[in-house]
Amino acid sequence: MPKASEIKKHAAIEYNGRVMIVRDIERSVPQGRAGGSLYRMRMYDVVDNSKVDETFKAEEMLTLADLNRRPAMLSYVDGDEYVFMDDEDYTPYHLNKESIAEQLLFIDESTKGLSIVVVQGMPVSIDLPSSVELVIEDTSPSIKGASASARTKPATLTTGLVVQVPEHISSGDKIKINTAESKFMGRAE
């Protein structure tokens, strides 16, 4: 059983007899209090998608929910629903655009290493690989000889994600992105 301070975004926990996915965590340290931090978590019920905001003390123990991770790939988009196909048994998993909006910025049809988080037989979230390869859709023109400089410029990727890239990178280049920090890691091979 982890402490509240050890819980990460997109974790599944059991809370009041319900399985909840943690979508956002804010840490605060109240003034004048001898003691630890407070963790305000925005959680969503996996069954009815109802929202719950709750604050936990750093040392409070929470129970992780029983969940499975299934390797999958994006298959197709149907309106606001994204359909992922299990890599092993070809089970389709339907996820609403709202519930995975943050992760969608890192996903296109060629993204490998995705996992669907399944709780009680229902798909609830996506686990991203540590890095993904995406193509730059738009950025200012590259500057010749700029490879030695440390200056960066914004680049919009095909998924809509905007990252800072070195000046020598240009539109159409395929680059590697760190999914945890949304940072440029280098050109893709």
Description of the structure:
One of its GO terms (biological process) is peptide biosynthetic process. This protein is an all-beta fold. It is about 0% helix and about 50% strand. A five-stranded antiparallel β-sheet has the order 4-3-2-1-5, with no helix packed on it. A five-stranded antiparallel β-sheet has the order 8-7-6-9-10, with no helix packed on it. The protein has a five-stranded antiparallel β-sheet with strand order 13-12-11-14-15, with no helix packed on it. The mean pLDDT is about 85.
What are the main properties of this structure?
189 residues; Translation_prot_SH3-like_sf; translation elongation factor activity; mainly beta; protein biosynthesis; Rib_uL2_dom2; 1 helix; elongation factor
List the helices and strands and how they pair.
Layout (H helix, E strand, L loop, with lengths): L11 E4 L2 E11 L9 E8 L5 E7 L5 E2 L2 E12 L2 E6 L5 E5 L4 H4 L9 E6 L2 E6 L3 E9 L12 E6 L4 E5 L7 E5 L4 E5 L2
Antiparallel strand pairs: 1-2, 1-5, 2-3, 3-4, 6-7, 6-9, 7-8, 9-10, 11-12, 11-14, 12-13, 14-15
Family: Belongs to the elongation factor P family.
GO molecular function: translation elongation factor activity
Protein name: Elongation factor P-like protein
